[in-house]
Amino acid sequence: MQLRSAPLEDWLRERYFAADADISSSGVQPYTMADVRAKTGLRQADLDSLVFTDGYSLGAPQLRQIIAERWGDGDSSRVMTANGSSESISLVLMALLRPGDEVVVVEPGYHLLVEFAVGLGCVPKAWRLDPANGWRPDLDELAGMVTGRTRAIIVNFPQNPTGTSISAAELDRLVEIAREAGAYLLWDAAFADLTYDDGPLPDASTRYEAAISFGTFSKAFGLPGLRFGWCIGPPGVLADCVRIRDYTTLHVAPLIELLAQRVLENAEAFLEPRRKQARLNRDIVGRWAATHPGLVSVTLPRGGVAAFPRLPGVADVDAFCDELFSRRGVLVIPGSCFGAPEHVRLGFGGPAEQLVRGLDRLAEELNTVR
């Protein structure tokens, strides 16, 4: 397996910890341990009674049941917990894909959903989102791309980095396209609980027997450092994932699963405050963009906490982002990390005052290159 470098992680590796105003992230403002204890009622005695034994290969049964009931069809045999959704996505891709397999990937897109299949020797077919159409996915185009040779369609809606999404009816159409081709539908639902004009989409795993969905604490739950995720899919595929996991992580740590269970038992206490914050911050981005029409062109996202604006007056966006960080301490992600070099990923999930400070400095820097 040959993996190319992940430009997004390369860009963030050092800058992430040194930014004065981070307006790059695709997740909401992280919670503290004190927040977790207050929202869940977790006591010191609960921690003291934990035994650091090995865990279950597919995850603790009670935790899997909670996930199955919240997002799946209630069948916990279809759930695997993971060390972040990155692990579950990687395991599923390794379990399903072989060199030469044809896979459909979305561009611009998150590197794991694109490059990992390439590293496995698959043949990617890019389903490109058009900025001129507000990044809206064209399902007719997808239908024309998929053939009987297509092994998997890999998507995430709401999408990273554009924030675009599809409707429930379009999800049904997407499922039919996958079913007719006999292809797996790999559905990254990292932003499922962060939507604006529409409610959350149904989980794809409840709509199609060959769909596998992925969830995470890293985005809407504000717990990226906990590194907890899951997937929902056919038990046979999960069994293949376990055979690979037996050579790597084995299972999720009992401490992480204890915290994850308490969080999920009190899910809305974590989700709703950050949804409210995201709505307010999205409005701030909209007003800022309207105030600077000559500097930036943006379609506000339908989900998630990141927008993907174009900087029409900037010849070299990578160099601009580097200067923005060096001169003003503001962190954004150049669109080249997603294959769209005229754009930047602008995150608005953090504190409003940090967002306003970052946007003001971004406008100042843009004015210097006009």
Description:
The protein has 2 domains: 7-32 and 269-368, Aspartate Aminotransferase, domain 1; 45-266, Aspartate Aminotransferase, domain 2, CATH 3.40.640.10. Helices cover 41% and strands 14% of the residues. It has helices spanning 7-15, 33-40, 44-48, 61-70, 84-96, 111-119, 139-145, 168-181, 235-245, 254-265, 267-291, 317-328, 352-368, and strands at 21-22, 79-82, 102-107, 123-128, 150-156, 184-188, 211-216, 229-232, 306-307, 330-331, 333-334, 344-347. It is globular. The mean pLDDT is 96.
Instruction: Give me the count of strands.
Output: 12
What would CATH call the homologous superfamily of the largest domain? Type I PLP-dependent aspartate aminotransferase-like (Major domain)
Helix content: 40-55%
Could you say what the CATH architecture of the largest domain is? 3-Layer(aba) Sandwich
Helix-and-strand structural type: alpha/beta
Oligomer status:
single chain
Fold-level CATH name of the largest domain: Aspartate Aminotransferase, domain 2
Let me know the largest β-sheet. Answer: 7 strands, mixed
Q: Tell me the series of helices and strands, N- to C-terminal.
A: HEHHHEHEHEHEHEEEHHHEHEEEH
Task: Tally the helices.
Answer: 13
Radius of gyration, in Å, reads 20 Å
Count of domain modules: 2
Shape: globular
Distance separating the two termini: 44 Å
